[in-house]
Write a structure and sequence with these properties.
Blueprint lengths: L5 H8 L11 H9 L7 H12 L4 H15 L6 H16 L3 H12 L2 H17 L2 H18 L8 H16 L3 H6 L15 H10 L1 H9 L4 H8 L11 H10 L15 H14 L12 H23 L4 H17 L3 H4 L5 H15 L17 H14 L9 H6 L4 H4 L2 H16 L6 H11 L4 H11 L1 H9 L8 H27 L8 H23 L5 H17 L24 H7 L4 H14 L3 H10 L4 H14 L8 H8 L2
Length: 660
């Protein structure tokens, strides 16, 4: 099987244009082979001049021109090629940073020398095997000097960028996260452009030593730049080289998933994800056909399989997965279910990786919690990843008790470590969650939904969260400056806890087929508690979260309608049943409670209309709630006339309601 990145395969299909201005190692070998007597003494004199004198590029060009006229007058670019070979020979004879600095100064002012040097060195090493060791040792010395910032660039601005990036890195507490983000703000491999020819030769001559050398550095900017010469990163990425690196890279994550500060493995993981994200970009068509979408999905899945298979072969695979999957999950949690299914969405690629990782786990045990060095947002993202693995049948559902205990706060806990930990664990999810209940809530709910009494567990959690409700209603007595912020933050936590409860209901309802079963009766009780929680929160939450609770009512009404047998015959056979006709609250009860707010009532009616093609059901609900639909439609139109922005209407939906 020819394992390649998708970008590699697509590049092979494109027409290749030969650039005659660029010389390859074969071009230099052809030049050397054209000299049956070998390079003359005059060439050695030029090499000696480079090693011993401090002349400039113009003098080097003049000396080389005289030699070229004598031995290669008809060879195109012969003068510059001989000059480049002379530089390669000088580096072999005196492989020191002093010599490298001289040649760097030459190529800083010569485009050809800068671009051709690595090819000339490769050819020279092939003709002179002793050069191999000289070049490797020189590269190792240069790397050490770059790593400790004693080898400077010809550009002051480049030196400032290098030192500034390193200072920024050392001041960061979230260094692993900086790598996951792709070293934002960094100019990339071009910052080390001057040194790349030397390291290109290093990797060609001894890739294993190259990998061991760069893996010792703690500088992610330097390491990421040098990965370019190995075919990892921009322009010409090669899966074979990435796989070689993965196999040889030292462990970055120790027992439990703690990061040991090694940067090579995380950088390689970032590269793998970047390659996966490029799959849709390889298609130039903006409007994809269903067939093309299927092809992209298949390509993403197969590439994810290649990536994870290579990782799974490592001894530290489970700890690597334990730290990478929370980051992948973080990207997913910010998307809707529709976005995750979109082939153009990055979340589809992240989801594919998580799915394959789950399948490749095998008997490898995963840590049950994030390690102590992980940022606090990571804990619940990792919990979501474990839940995803469990949902797909790859592992047992993680225990929910520790998660549940985080919600049990006393008034004193809110301002202490336990309250701070809850807020930090939830902050990312409460910010990212776009839907009701949403991907995060469904994953956090899954372990509870798999317990023996999921409804009772959630009801207990909600009751134990009384401290949060008191803060929402009365404020935090310890919040001297910003009481509103505490009330809003507690409200967001309760919204998340409610979403988890709604997700527990949804997951249980999807399995229920008999509304007389113990499970269905438990779900009906859970629904009643969810409705009571909503009513309470709408009374006490006056922060910006209030509108969210209004949306929640619509979701409850729709679920109450969907999960009830519409025929009223309890013995009727249906695929899914939860409610009996008299289970409170009924849809009519929910509508009746909303009669005092025409905006809210219309919103509920529109949601019901969108989810039920049966007009007679909606009429029945309205009649039982003693609601005159024509009066409601008239009222909302009147409000819209007075204040269109405050009371917007959907004319199509209103017309649809008017036909009921």
């Amino acid at each position: 099987m020819n394992e390649q990145w998708p970008s590699e395969r697509h590049a092979e299909k494109r027409e290749i244009f030969a650039d005659s201005s660029f010389k390859t190692a074969q071009d230099f070998l052809s030049l050397l082979n054209a000299l049956p007597l070998g390079l003359p003494k005059a060439f050695d004199d030029i090499v000696s001049w480079i090693m011993e004198q401090d002349g400039d590029l113009s003098e080097l060009e003049q000396r080389t021109a005289q030699l070229a006229d004598e031995i290669a007058p008809t060879i195109p670019d012969g003068k510059t090629m001989l000059m480049t070979l002379a530089c390669g020979a000088a580096l072999e004879r005196t492989p020191s940073l002093r010599t490298w600095t001289k040649i760097n100064a030459f190529k800083y002012n010569s485009w050809q020398l800068a671009r051709w040097l690595s090819e000339a060195m490769t050819a020279y090493a092939e003709m002179n095997p002793s050069a191999c060791n000289a070049y490797v040792e020189l590269a190792k010395e240069a790397f050490a000097a770059l790593d400790n910032f004693t080898l400077k660039s010809q550009s002051a601005r480049t030196n400032e960028e290098r030192s500034g990036a390193w200072a920024y890195w050392n001041n960061r507490q979230d260094r692993l996260e900086e790598i996951w983000w792709g070293l934002r703000g960094w100019s990339g491999f071009m910052n080390y452009e001057e040194e790349l020819p030397l390291f290109q030769v290093f990797y060609k001559l001894n890739p294993d030593v190259f990998i061991r050398t760069i893996s010792r550095s703690a500088n992610p900017y330097l390491v990421s730049a040098l990965l370019f010469v190995a075919g990892i990163g921009a322009f010409s990425p090669r899966f074979s080289e990435w796989k070689r690196m993965i196999a040889a890279a030292p462990a970055a994550f120790e027992d439990g998933g703690k990061w040991n500060s090694s940067v090579l493995m995380p950088l390689l993981l970032v590269e793998a994800r970047n390659q996966l994200l490029q799959v849709p970009q390889n298609r130039r068509n903006l409007d994809l056909t269903p067939g093309e979408r299927d092809e992209i999905k298949q390509e993403i899945t197969s590439t994810a399989e290649l990536i994870v298979t290579a990782l799974a072969a490592r001894q530290d695979a489970s700890t690597t997965f334990a730290r990478w999957t929370p980051w992948l999950m973080r990207q997913i949690l910010g998307q809707t279910a529709k976005e995750i299914a979109d082939v153009k969405s990055a979340a589809l690629a992240d989801d594919a990786l998580i799915d394959v990782i789950g399948r490749k786990l095998g008997d490898s045990p995963l840590p049950q919690t994030s390690p102590g060095d992980a940022p606090l947002w990571e804990a619940w993202c990792y919990r979501c990843a474990l839940a995803s693995f469990a949902y797909n049948g790859h592992i047992q559902a993680p225990a929910w008790e520790g998660f549940g205990d985080e919600w049990r706060l006393s008034p004193e806990d809110w301002g202490g470590d336990k309250g701070r930990l809850l807020r930090e664990h939830a902050s990312l999810i409460t910010t990212l969650n776009k839907e009701i209940p949403g991907v995060a809530a469904n994953l956090l709910a899954y372990p509870i939904a798999q317990s023996l009494s999921p409804a009772e567990v959630w009801i207990g959690l909600w009751n134990d969260a009384n401290t949060l409700r008191e803060i929402v209603e009365f404020g935090d007595s310890d919040a001297v400056e910003d009481e509103y912020s505490s009330r809003s933050e507690a409200g967001r936590l309760l919204l998340l806890l409610f979403r988890i409860g709604l997700a527990i209901f949804d997951q249980g309802a999807a399995r229920s087929s008999d509304n007389n079963s113990l499970e269905a009766r438990s779900l009906a009780r859970l629904f009643k508690e969810l409705n009571s929680a909503t009513c309470e929160m709408r009374e006490i939450d006056s922060t910006l979260n209030h509108d969210e609770w209004f949306s929640v009512v619509q979701h409850l009404a729709v679920r109450r309608m969907i999960w009830e047998n519409p025929s009223g015959i309890e013995s009727a056979s249906m695929n899914f049943q939860v409610f009996k006709a008299n289970d409170a609250p009924t849809v009519s009860d929910i509508l009746s409670d909303a009669k005092g707010n025409v905006i809210e009532l219309v919103g509920i009616l529109q949601s019901l209309s969108l989810n039920s093609p049966d007009a007679s059901r909606l009429k029945t609900y309205l009649n039982l709630a003693s609601i005159d639909l024509s009066n409601i439609v008239h009222s909302i139109r009147t409000l819209n006339q007075y204040h269109p922005r405050k009371y917007p209407i959907d004319e199509a939906q209103l017309q649809k309601l008017g036909t009921h």
